[in-house]
């Protein structure tokens, strides 16, 4: 490292060649949760940091503790960035945890929550046609409306539901 800091390119190449396996071992030991690709990314980050910050190493101090500190901090940074989430591809779980047969238990609750945000007439029309399966004529007779008025009100109610859905997604 002394020679590398003084501009000796061969010494620097030799230094990187010798410390890369050491860094890789430290990263794998401390950052196993990152996986093989994540560990290799950290190794590259450490080597880049050493390249950029090698002038901060004090020449009167041993190299190994400085190297360990840089590596340890990069592993910690990578683990923090990863967070505590565990990512499992859905494809691996599809056969293990199949969806239960039948009606979605949250469907009725979600539907009532959305219908509760509409004006009462629109909610009545959507319930009658969409849930109860009534025709526009039957709905019009129940509500004292013409069939055409029911169709127009249904269309407007569906547009209002679409707007509510967009707000819920945001």
From TrEMBL:
It holds the Pfam family Sigma70_r2. It comes from Pararhodobacter marinus. One of its GO terms (molecular function) is DNA binding. Belongs to the sigma-70 factor family. ECF subfamily. This is SigD protein. It comes from the Bacteria. Keywords: DNA-binding, Sigma factor, Transcription, Transcription regulation. PANTHER family: ECF RNA POLYMERASE SIGMA FACTOR SIGD (PTHR43133:SF58), RNA POLYMERASE ECF-TYPE SIGMA FACTO (PTHR43133). InterPro entries: RNA_pol_sigma-70-like, RNA_pol_sigma-70_dom, RNA_pol_sigma70_r2, RNA_pol_sigma70_r4_t2, RNA_pol_sigma_r2, RNA_pol_sigma_r3/r4-like, WH-like_DNA-bd_sf. Residues 111-160 form the RNA polymerase sigma factor 70 region 4 type domain. Residues 20-83 form the RNA polymerase sigma-70 region domain. The keyword DNA-binding applies. GO terms for biological process: DNA-templated transcription initiation.
């Amino acid at each position: 490292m002394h020679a590398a800091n003084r501009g000796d390119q061969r010494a620097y190449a030799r230094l990187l060649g010798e410390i890369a396996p050491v860094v890789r071992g430290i990263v794998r030991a401390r950052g196993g949760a990152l996986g093989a690709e994540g560990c290799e990314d950290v190794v590259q980050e450490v080597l880049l940091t050493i390249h950029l910050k090698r002038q901060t190493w004090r020449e009167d101090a041993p190299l190994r503790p400085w190297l360990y500190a840089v590596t340890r901090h990069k592993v910690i940074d990578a683990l923090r960035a990863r967070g505590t989430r565990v990512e499992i591809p859905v494809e691996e779980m599809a056969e293990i945890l199949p969806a239960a047969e039948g009606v979605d238990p949250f469907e009725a609750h979600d539907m009532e929550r959305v219908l509760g945000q509409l004006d009462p007439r629109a909610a009545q029309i959507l319930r009658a046609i969409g849930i109860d399966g009534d025709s526009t004529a039957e709905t019009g007779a129940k509500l004292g409306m013409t069939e055409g008025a029911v169709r127009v009100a249904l269309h407007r109610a569906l547009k209002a539901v679409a707007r509510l859905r967009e707000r819920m997604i945001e």
